[in-house]
Amino acid sequence: MLGRLNHVAIAVPDLAAASALYRDTLGAEVTEPQPLPEHGVTVVFINVGNTKIELLEPLGEASSIAGFLAKNPAGGMHHVCYEVDDILAARDRLKASGARVLGDGEPKIGAHGKPVLFLHPKDFQGTLVELEQA
Amino acid sequence: MLGRLNHVAIAVPDLAAASALYRDTLGAEVTEPQPLPEHGVTVVFINVGNTKIELLEPLGEASSIAGFLAKNPAGGMHHVCYEVDDILAARDRLKASGARVLGDGEPKIGAHGKPVLFLHPKDFQGTLVELEQA
Questions:
Q1: What is its EC number (chains A, B) (predicted)?
Q2: Calpha distance B50→B35 (Å, rounded)
């Protein structure tokens, strides 16, 4: 069921500084910032060849990552995103096993224009897990 | 300089339970536990196709992840590991840019039998970064 790792997301307090670090010091390929108001974040993707790192900066008042940065002011690893062939089948299988889906349980459109869901970190060893339709 | 993502490491309080979750509920390919006394951890690798997830359980009294689990009893994302072509050249370039290398600054042999180094999370937006010789 679990497909490839689409990305690792890192919440950062300063997207421009973080992008410069990955581009200039680490020599990585970095995209332009992409605001996603419906998710309350601005994102930058770093291409590391086999997968991507997603840098997240809060956008707007109700940003979902503002609370995370309040607890981790320097930033930190926020979630991992796996691809699945059928997001509704994956959701139903996980719910049947007792895992909790965040929000209203219905997929939303994510940063890549594909349906995504988030699973409760308490059901995955403290790790927030995103599923994305492959 | 930054190569592919070799793995994402997740510290877990119960390696057997975490392995069962990834194998049975998430349907992933999971290795047998591998004790690494010199690193103070027992590891399990989960193959997700394009990269790996490394589950870490403390091993012994002086485990490097016991403190992390004391702060995060449910577990959580612990570090990311990138491959580099030349670990000494990467280290020297990072040090020249002001990044701090943990420990004595010399590579040790990691879980894959290759030289590894860890970089200070404060220099990478709160993210502990491991470099592994490709």
A1: 5.1.99.1
A2: 24
